[in-house]
What does this fold into?
Amino acid sequence: MSPEDDRSVRNAIFAARQAVEGSGAQQGGRAIQAPVPMQEIQIPSAQVPLPSRGLVYPVDSPLYGKESVDIKGMTTQEEDILMSRALIKKGTVINELIRACLLTPGVAVNDMLAGDRNALMVAIRITGYGPEYTPIVQCPSCEQKTEYPIDLSNLDIKPLELDPVLPGQNRFSFLLPVSKKNVIFRFLTGKDEEEIANIIETKKKKGLAVDSVITTRLISCVVAIDGVEDRSVIAKQITYLPARDSLMLRKYMEQHEPGIDMRCQFECPNCGHTEEVAVPMGASFFWPNS
It folds into this structure.
């Protein structure tokens, strides 16, 4: 991908600001389009690029080879989903919201890459409430908590630039620098992220240590080691993986994982400290007045 192409993709998702404001402008070739009236009911729709570029989905998936999907703007019906106590309790409220807004038929939301789901979440939020987001951010220096305005349309999209081991498979190769073993790994889906969170929560409730997050995530990501795909063998090898192998594998996966760069430049109004921080996904992300 050329630098020019990369620049055109980076902020493409977040041209939704123009969709919200009714502009016909487009940034790059993959920008969210200005609102297009749906048949009969005047609900704006938008095109959202997938960070994975559809390269990781099987041939029988509606996302195979798809570089973008269509969504409709949020309405009061989607707000009802967000306020559903039953869905909140089940932990499925975000999945149901994405499913309700997604116009591309037949998509299993839980099987989407976490980065693709995050792209949809941000785009849906922008079409629903606009790009302005004011979370509570804690200063890394003085620890003062403050409301800090963030423009979601300025967040960058990070497209997948690795080629899968085979077309239509969420499998990628990496050679461990110390043990010289070949690892086949995958990027986590929304379902994987939920399962890991449930494992950690279960350990907390049982009073067990939860300091094995790195190991748990690596076991979920690694598909094979030197051709061996047995899950128990992989779990044992990951548990005793040399620290440098673990670090380099995690860095490689983080560097190449497609998704949204959820970081912003923060300047503390209390002490003046400046630092790049992660954008917190608090309740106000989808509940601006909460």
Remarks:
- Confidence is low (pLDDT under 50) at residues 6-11, 16-21, 23-34.
- The chain is about 35% helix and 15% strand.
